[in-house]
Write a structure and sequence with these properties.
It is a single chain. The protein is α+β, with helices and mostly antiparallel strands. The chain folds into 2 domains: about 1-65, Double Stranded RNA Binding Domain (2-Layer Sandwich), CATH 3.30.160; about 90-148, Arc Repressor Mutant, subunit A (Orthogonal Bundle), CATH 1.10.10. Helices cover about 45% and strands about 25% of the residues. The protein is built from 7 helices and 6 strands; from the N terminus they run H-E-E-E-H-H-H-E-H-H-H-E-E. It has helices spanning about 5-10, 50-65, 70-80, 85-90, 95-110, 110-115, 125-135; strands at about 20-25, 30-35, 40-45, 90-95, 135-140, 140-145. The strands form 2 sheets. A 3-stranded antiparallel sheet has the order 1-2-3, with no helix packed on it. Strands 4-6-5 form a 3-stranded antiparallel sheet. Strand 2 and strand 3 (about 40-45) form a beta hairpin. Helix 5 (about 95-110) packs across helix 7. The longest helix has 17 residues, at about 50-65. The protein starts with a helix and ends with a strand.
Length: about 150
């Protein structure tokens, strides 16, 4: 928990996409998500100040521990997930969904041993499509497991 409003605002600076803070009442705050030109993209109002303060405090800790920095944590939270599950859900940064799926197959299975010469017929693109229908989410280059 933050002892002062200044500590809270300093912690919020860790998340550059959230650029404005305003207080509605002593127990309700709002955040404005703005683009690079300062245009408001989204306004979010939180009814429980304590919950949001604790969430940001935990997000700062998780972002500090993430080897890919704060961006995947911010992305995970923007997708509507609770930061508490980030470590379980985060599957890394990938250039594409297909690249992740290929690595997953190669890490878990030896297709050559299982299928022999038929392994060259394995369709990674169809496997990827099925994998990302509900099991995984790909956003901003990050992969998240939806079943954390």
């Amino acid at each position: 928990m933050y002892a002062t409003r200044e500590e809270y605002l300093d912690a919020m600076d860790t998340f550059p996409k959230i650029t404005h803070y305003f207080e509605l009442t002593s127990e309700t705050i709002g955040l404005l998500d703005c683009d690079d030109e300062g245009e408001i993209i989204e306004e979010v109002i939180f009814k429980d100040l304590l919950t949001i303060l604790n969430g940001f405090e935990e997000a700062v800790v998780v972002a500090d521990e993430c080897h890919d920095g704060e961006d995947p944590v911010v992305t995970f939270m923007e997708l509507g997930h609770d930061v508490e599950y980030f470590e379980e859900a985060y599957s890394g940064k990938w250039d594409s969904e297909v690249e992740y799926a290929e690595d997953l197959i190669d890490s878990c299975y030896d297709l050559e041993k299982m299928m022999g010469s038929l392994s060259s017929y394995f369709d990674y693109e169809k496997f990827t499509r099925d994998l990302f229908i509900s099991d995984y989410t790909y956003c901003d280059g990050y992969v998240f497991n939806n079943y954390y």
